[in-house]
Amino acid sequence: MKNYDILIIGGGPAGISSALAAAKLNLKVALFEEKEILGGQLVKQTHKFFGSKDESAGTRGIYIAQKLINEVNNKDKIDVFLNSMVLGYYEDGVVTALVKEKMEKFKPKKIIIATGAFEKSLPFENNDLPGVFGAGAVQTLMNVYGILPGKEILMIGSGNIGLIVSYQLAQVGVKVKGIVEISEKIGGYLVHASKVRRLGIPIYTKHTIVKALGDRKVKGAIIENVETKEKKEISCDVICLATGLMPLSDILNQINCKMKYIPELGGYVPVRDENMKTTVENVFVAGDSSGIEEATAAMLEGELAGLYASYEITNTFDKRINEIKEHLKELRKTSSKVVSGLKKLNLYKDFIVDSQKDLGKLHRTGVPEKEMIENIIPKDSNRFAIMECFQNIPCNPCVASCPTNAISMDSLNGIPKLDEKKCIGCGNCVAVCPGLAIFVVDKKKESVLLPYEFLPVPEKGEMVEIMDREGNFLEKNIVLNVRKMKDKTNLIEVKVSKENINNARHIRVVI
Amino acid sequence: MDEEKIIVCRCEDITLKEIRDLIHEGYTTVEEIKRVSRAGMGPCQGKTCGPIIAREISKITGKPIEEVYKPSNRPPFGGLFFKEIVGESNEE
Ligand code: SF4
Ligand code: SF4
């Protein structure tokens, strides 16, 4: 039997953050991970994260994972058990786990459950055909092992996962035939939606998949308009399901933590208090297993659980505990779904969420209305940044990136505003924006500076095809300048004729 | 819609038709359906099919889903060899 202060189940963003928090206080930590590497879903996230500047916003998930893993490896207070599955928890506080093909017993003072989530499946005809994948599997194949799942793909679900994975598939050269969304509005962040629309990928709102076509493998799909019942056939060799996650709660169920079914949080979640304590003595929870949210929230919850569990052992209260709670509140200020779920757990009782505006066409198609764009185009300036970011989301790296303080925002969840007199058109904001929603327009020079995350990167002087917000071809023109960036969001300045200057939003290299 | 071609439990290959037939026969909890059909007894231990079966029961019987879907779990959570518990001294 091995003794530890804190035993953490799950080596994803929440679990790692818990481990680091407890190790900071000099406690002895065991961190269990079923897979061969730490990092959880972060190791597949090649996109930049939202959030506030002080929580690694604008950094790609894979780099956040690397940083966290390095920190864990530098702490000798943390014993990491990889390829090790926790098997059970017993009333006397003993945890059993399979370590190196042997069942071992552990006796921790506290345990933190950070087991993450499980992808929801979807019943439709022929849903067992080879070629039907979960979005997690597609990301693992593509981003961890470097294997293409197929050539042409249909994405089901327009939440952030569906949108982001579609974008990543397009980056590696897979043709994304469309994104199917059952409700009338796009589920994920609209800047992500605009990003895929620019590539010419359609989003079918109010549609659902009814049938996979093919005999021995997927050859296509039939989707149906949920209102008109009109059907449409789409050919593809992969159907990717991004229809939501549910908290992974096996261990919590087994321990007999009080559970509650809360659809807003993804399914069954443990009843917990504001310090992530479950109803069972010495058992804490963090991350998606306590309710589905973004990775940033998981890291904060993990740290909170780690610090609070440590506090119960050491009796020294870390100020950071209260800071994290405030951060989480700020992060959730516009997440009406998560907050209404938390209210059902008797948390966030008096918390009021900022109401989310219906953004009309943008919410239904991912492409903003003409007037929305016209409203933000500066009238008296010849070179300016234009921020096509209209939705309240917890994101602000653009503000800090500006050397002349031309961008302002009233809170983390606010909409960025440009002071056109201050903007010098340097393009710093274009490079940091995780939504790839900022462009610099130069009316005199007749050019647009845009973010570009595809290969090959064009050369200065090369002719490229220029596309609008829906991926429609506008014109061919010449690349004026290329700024290769370390974080791989390269900046391309391209010449654009006057009539297209307000619509040029993407380029394609002609091979 | 061909219910026989919709797989609900992919570990044990159980279709939507089989599940709906069982509910109509009077098996109206996830646990009962698991015992008569083996849905949920495969490697994923009902994580994929459990919520779908619960939704079907809820739709047909009118009971709210939180009353229907109450997963219970017992250790061990994964497959385990005897040798991993007791150790192997002699292969022969
Ligand atoms: S282009 Fe430069 S000056 Fe203008 S808003 Fe962006 S960062 Fe600020
Ligand atoms: S414009 Fe600013 S707030 Fe909007 S996505 Fe980009 S960095 Fe975030």
UniProtKB/TrEMBL annotation, chain A:
Superkingdom to which the source organism belongs: Bacteria
Domain 4Fe-4S ferredoxin-type: 382-412, 414-443
InterPro entries, alphabetized: 4Fe4S_Fe-S-bd (IPR017896), 4Fe4S_Fe_S_CS (IPR017900), FAD/NAD-bd_sf (IPR036188), FAD/NAD-binding_dom (IPR023753), Metab_Enz_Cyan_OpOx_G3PDH (IPR051691)
Keyword Coiled coil: no
Protein keywords: Iron, Iron-sulfur, Metal-binding, Oxidoreductase
Pfam family, one: Pyr_redox_2
Stated name of the protein: FAD-dependent oxidoreductase
The organism of origin for this protein: Marinitoga aeolica
UniProtKB/TrEMBL annotation, chain B:
Database matches in CDD domains: GlpA-like_Fer2_BFD-like (cd19946)
Keyword Oxidoreductase: yes
InterPro entries: BFD-like_2Fe2S-bd_dom, BFD-like_2Fe2S-bd_dom_sf, Metab_Enz_Cyan_OpOx_G3PDH
Entry superkingdom: Bacteria
Domain BFD-like [2Fe-2S]-binding: 7-54
Keywords, comma-separated and alphabetical: Oxidoreductase
PANTHER family in UniProt: ANAEROBIC GLYCEROL-3-PHOSPHATE DEHYDROGENASE SUBUNIT B
Name of the protein described by the UniProt record: (2Fe-2S)-binding protein
Protein's organism: Marinitoga aeolica
